[in-house]
Automatic annotation (TrEMBL):
It comes from Sphaerosporella brunnea. It comes from the Eukaryota. GO terms for cellular component: nucleolus. Residues 1-48, 100-200 are annotated as: Disordered. This is DUF1168 domain protein. Residues 100-126, 138-161 have a biased composition (Basic and acidic residues). Residues 127-137 have a biased composition (Basic residues). GO terms for molecular function: double-stranded RNA binding; protein kinase binding; protein kinase inhibitor activity.
Length: 200
């Protein structure tokens, strides 16, 4: 009789089974976890980090050409494959040259566009900066004008206070009756159009 085993374990996962475990498609997270686990198995080993896209290059041409083809019209069918390989290499060389030219043109176009965008950004920044400076100067001018008006009002106030104190001193000197009339009739006009009545 066989040993009773847990029914929920698949046959491939059973430790008594000799079958290899099933390989499943890895999700991106499990693939990354597997790669990290593999890297940590031997931490002293150097890790090669790719430096970017590799440029396609052709193998250098041979220094010695063993079977030079002639231009005779009666070339045999044995030379057909040699001719096809030679033509394929030449077409690949021309394709790579065209690709290189196209990449250089794209790079120049990209740099030109970036330069234009940078120039536009600088112009917009300068325009906004000038607008902000004008606004700031206008605010400073309004503030200075307000400060000047406040100083003028303070001067007028001081002049009115001096006039009132002078009138009070005169009234004290001339007597109480004359002083009362003066106090009631004190009107001081300033150049700003402010009239102050002193009613005590």
């Amino acid at each position: 009789m066989s040993e009773p085993g847990p029914a929920s374990i698949p046959t491939s996962a059973d430790p008594r089974s000799k079958r290899p475990t099933k390989r499943r498609a890895l999700s991106p997270t499990s693939a990354q976890a597997s790669a990290v686990t593999h890297l940590f198995t031997n931490p002293e080993r150097d890790i090669k980090i790719p430096t970017g896209a590799r440029q396609k290059t052709l193998a250098p041409p041979p220094e010695i050409v063993a079977n030079v083809q002639g231009s005779s019209a009666g070339a045999g069918s044995g030379e057909f494959h040699v001719y096809k390989a030679s033509r394929r290499r030449e077409y690949e060389r021309l394709r790579l040259m065209d690709e290189q030219v196209r990449q250089e043109e794209e790079k120049r176009e990209f740099e030109r566009k970036m330069e234009e965008l940078k120039k536009k950004d600088e112009e917009k920044t300068n325009k906004n900066r000038k607008r902000r400076m004008k606004k700031k100067e206008k605010a400073n001018a309004v503030k200075a004008d307000n400060d000047k008006q406040m100083m003028d009002v303070d001067k007028i106030q001081d002049a009115n206070d001096k006039a009132i104190s002078a009138a009070n001193q005169e009234s004290a000197n001339n007597g109480d009756a004359a002083g009362d009339d003066l106090e009631n009739a004190v009107e001081v006009k300033d150049e700003g159009g402010i009239v102050i009545h002193d009613d005590d």
